[in-house]
């Protein structure tokens, strides 16, 4: 499912993807907590600060038994990398990440060993 995010980082509107499984969990969450303005509201009803999101993520990764520190930016980077490994065109990834320049996306999404292993040498097809 495609979702529209208004006023994301840098006050830019963005689009992203939402899994069907997560949508079901969000519906349950909404029914239980009934947020007023933001989907996820802080203790006083306002939006969460960037540092609060980082703290929540840190607690979650510790609870899950992760040994390395995970940041929100790492999740974004992993999302882009997984899309790239699935063969999604870089232009679509650029749109999902909200990058104005394709150069930013090219730098941001590193090429993984998994993606390189899928490349066939054109000479192999020539000699078949």
What does it look like?
The protein is built from seven helices and two strands; from the N terminus they run E-E-H-H-H-H-H-H-H. A two-stranded antiparallel sheet has the order 1-2. It has 128 residues and is mainly alpha-helical. It folds into two domains: 1-48, no CATH class; 67-117. The protein is elongated, with a radius of gyration of 19 Å. The longest helix is centred in the N-terminal third of the chain and has 14 residues, at 20-33.
Q: If you compute it from the alpha carbons, what radius of gyration comes out, rounded to the nearest whole angstrom?
A: 19 Å
| Biggest pleated-sheet summary | 2 strands, antiparallel
Mean pLDDT: 87
**Termini Cα gap:** 42 Å
How many discrete domains?
A: 2
Shape: elongated
Beta content comes to 5-15%
Write down the oligomeric state. single chain
Relative helix content:
40-55%
Name the helix and strand elements from N-terminus to C-terminus, one letter apiece: EEHHHHHHH
Number of helices: 7
Structural class: mainly alpha
Total strand segments: 2
Give unreliable regions as ranges: none
Trace the largest sheet across and list its strands: 1-2
What order do the helices and strands come in, and which of them pair?
Blueprint lengths: L1 E4 L8 E4 L2 H14 L16 H14 L8 H14 L4 H8 L4 H7 L4 H5 L4 H5 L2
Antiparallel strand pairs: 1-2
Helix pairs in contact: 4-5
